[in-house]
Predict the structure.
Amino acid sequence: MFESRGPRTASAVPQRRLDELACYGLTAHSSQLKKHPASRRLATLLATAQRLETKTIDDTLELLDLLMVTELLGKAQREADKQKVVKHPRLAKASAWLAQAVEVLLEAEGWSEDVRLFEVWEMIDAVVPLAQLRSRVATVTGLVPPPDAEDDGGWRAQMATKYATVSGFVKLLTAVIAFEANAEGRRVLAAMQALPDALAHRSRRHPVTVLPLRLIDPLVVTGPWKRLVFGHPARTDGLVDRNAYVCCVLEQFHRHLKRREIHAPASSRWRDPDAQLLNGAAWAAVKDSVLTDLGLPEDPEVLLAEHAERLDRAYRVVWAALAANTSVTIDDDGKIHVASVKAIEEPPSLIDLRKRVEAMMPRVDISEAVVEVLSWCPKFMEAFTSIAGTGPHLDDLDISVAACLTAQALNITYGPIAVKGVPALERHRLGYVDHTYPARRQHTREWRTS
């Protein structure tokens, strides 16, 4: 088990044994633990502490995932949709003014070659005053991202306003939980670990809502985050937006954590899945049997080459089919668009047949159908006996049984079936019949025996 002296480690102990010790340590009383030798008590304490640590880290990261999905990303997307509706009238009005100015500019192309610039400006000013034109340009610039920026729907800007929600735990997350990362997530993890020092920076030269460029990693800021972090147009004072940068790093940290490119070794759910793979002597002992069972070669190069060739042929077949299929198009962004399929109209004969069949169907209640079926076999009601062993002794028992069967078939209570003033359908009568006479599972037997 564990040595009573030297380093305390559980790496050489089977996981099953650690689980047994942890379960015992979490449920046993202190008086029971005192009865064991010192090595057993130490092993139980270490296994229990490891289990509690794993459970705590799992709960923390699951809470982080829930916070990101519901409170941050989800709400940011909904707020962005609302802001889009609010901004649309302003953007549409400003764009209409700019469109008029551009139309005048395009018309100037057909004028004489010796036209001067001030003449063009006079023509534009006659349509749109220059002061209003500058105001409309500023409005569009503030509402529309730059041409080279990716369109994210505006949810990142809304997420950046939630700095107060995330500032508290981003300072402690990487300090209390040990994280590791592969090559894809290593830079984002380093940026996340550097956030506490960056947020602790204070300067009298600039407000706390900005950070010096030297305290951040610009390479982790990609896509639409660049416009929010560095400003649009980009700032020239060497400062960046603190709120946007923190949310940028946190969003990418969460994305890499979901992909396990960033992982917590002490966690059971958020750990590195590759760490559970066999290697060294353990893999050499079972390698032959595993490869034989899976039908895989020891050298994967040949297998990967075959799959690559097969994938290439599939791509070429699909590309050849797309050239001849006008219903499928691919835009400049690589997205596939499929034309809508027109529904086949129903022939008049099918419509007429449906109407005739519907007209021929009888309009009856389910309870009436049950009563009619019961009348086909009178002996069926004679087979009903009460819990006392006597035969039917109630008047209109068939009506009460039909109502009970209807309620059971429709999976409803007796409320919609009961009718006041009708003795056989009173609510108390139906309950009495249901409890006094055979249950639903015996109805089939009574029907068959009759």
About this structure: The CA atoms of residues 128 and 295 lie 74 Å apart. The two ends are 71 Å apart (CA to CA).
